[in-house]
Predict the structure.
Amino acid sequence: MQREANERHPAHRANGAGIDGIPARERVGEPGGPQPRGATRREFLILGSKMFVMTSVAAAAFEHVLAGVPEAASTYNIVDHWWAMLIDIEKCIGSGHCVRACKLENNVVDEPFYFRTWVERYHVDPLDMDHPTVDSPNGGIDGFPESYPDGTTTGKTFFVPKMCNHCADSPCTQVCPVGATFRTNDGVVLIDKEYCLGCRYCVQACPYGCRYIDPRTKTADKCTLCYHRLTKGLQPACCETCPTGARQIADLRNPDDPVHAFLRSHQIQVLKPQMATGAKVYYSGLDGSVR
């Protein structure tokens, strides 16, 4: 295990360092390093017995240390959470902060058409409410112009942020031939890039158009709810940077989460409810013309 960890993390081998990052000459008991003083066989056995009765949390942390990634150790209990996203349409101003933050936080390809989240602007003409005008210049990353190119001034205009819906019954996980797309026990749909074949089955199966193939890795990519931040007690980048609080991460298994009161007191919709995917991105104030 130690050899494999060192191969994955060559920086730990610099200057003769082991998986703990400490040079051999400075580690107690290593050749060339300080030797233990007064340590008897009995004391050594007592210390060893203490290590065997570590708590499960400490044992899990120790596994991360052995793997050469101690920063990954956490007390996060996956079964205590069930993540969702709440988006308040009336608060969204189309600033593009969320799109920019997402690209920077998750190293998304800095080119058009590659987004983990994006913002669409809808314009609904009162004379033709079934056919709204929708635009999203470069995913809304730089905001939106104040007026439409055709000079339209009447009707209703609003913004709709979109992303992976982290469905409870996600079509993408059902069609993946190798199980690279999966749902975690806390309700987040993720992609294992080491298993992904880049076959595009999931891209075609997603009814929300939220997946794409990363041209750098030739694998599928999408929103992860900034899972690396959630497990550390942090908010997703898009929620943290939203200037109006239009996006809110929600833990549905936490009875003290304010989202429960909001869900009870507001009319909530999901995109394409007829698909019966169990979408967990909930919209407040979503217009019926949104598709």
